[in-house]
Write the structure tokens for this entry.
Amino acid sequence: METSDMLIIGGGCAGLSAGMYAARLGLKTVLFAELPGGLITTTHVVENWPGIISTTGPDLGMNLWEHAKVSGVVMKSEVIQSVEKQGDVFVAKSRRNEYQGKTIVFATGSKHKHLGAPGEEEFANKGVSYCALCDGAFFKEKIVCIVGGGDSAAKEALFLAQHATKVYLIVRKDVLRAEPANLKLIEQEPKIEILFGEEVAEILGGESVEKIRLKSGKELAMQGVFVAIGQIPLTELAVPLGVELSTKGEIKINRHSETNIAGVYACGDCTDTEFKQAITGSAEGVTAAYFGFSYVKGSSGF
Ligand code: NDP
């Protein structure tokens, strides 16, 4: 079996940036991706990618994908199920194939947290959604809510207001922790009503969602419930290698995007970086490529 220089698991901003740089540094690089472009492709408008004043998530994701591809990364739409070390090489196994690499980069991202409220699983795809961009257009002229108090919830509320007649933003604390630019847009959007200090107790309906009950006892009629309450890092593939995780289950990295295991790197939403943005994940990917290159060449740089 041929041994690549670098295996990258994940095709989001972080993994694709790592791939593009690794290939440009001359490393034989294979990248595995389930969703080309990753989570950013489910974001509506992106206005904080330096140098691009405004673009869409799908456009940014697909441009990063193309950039990695034309740089020479071998793209595989295979799901890696396990990773192990055999001698000096890392072996990544999908259902059908095995791949060997001198280095490995985890850019595995995260998955959406669920509320755990009664009715949430029952009405999944029947009014309950974790992606406003994907499903928002189904709620034209309808009433919806978005649950969460971070920047994702704020951005999704703004997107949903383009379709729905009314958007409740349900925040469990008494503050919405969103970018000031998004907070300003929310203040200017009459369709959005923020309910502070409230949590969803139950989602109710028949064939699909009809209303929610809040922990305060209040009931609100609506057809859509969008959940944006944060992410769970996807790091289980790294554990058998002995990679150290934070208490939140994120892969611990240093300023070289190195983990505690030589030859193993991580970048993006699966890491313990505090400020997680598309651009920070991308930068961590580029850093992983550079120090992976140094590791492969047995040098401290170019
Ligand atoms: P955050 O972790 O920032 O926020 C999650 C929110 O959901 C918090 O307000 C939290 O409340 C609330 N929450 C958690 N669990 C529940 C629950 N069970 N019921 C009700 N509310 C709950 O997640 P985001 O997805 O908003 O952001 C994740 C990361 O992605 C951040 O680092 C953010 O900066 C980044 N991001 C980057 C973007 C970009 O690159 N442009 C765009 C959007 C996000 P509490 O505060 O009470 O815990």
Q: What stands out?
A: The pocket of NDP is lined by residues 48, 115, 147-153, 155, 172-173, 177, 199, 228-231, 276-278 (CB under 6 Å).
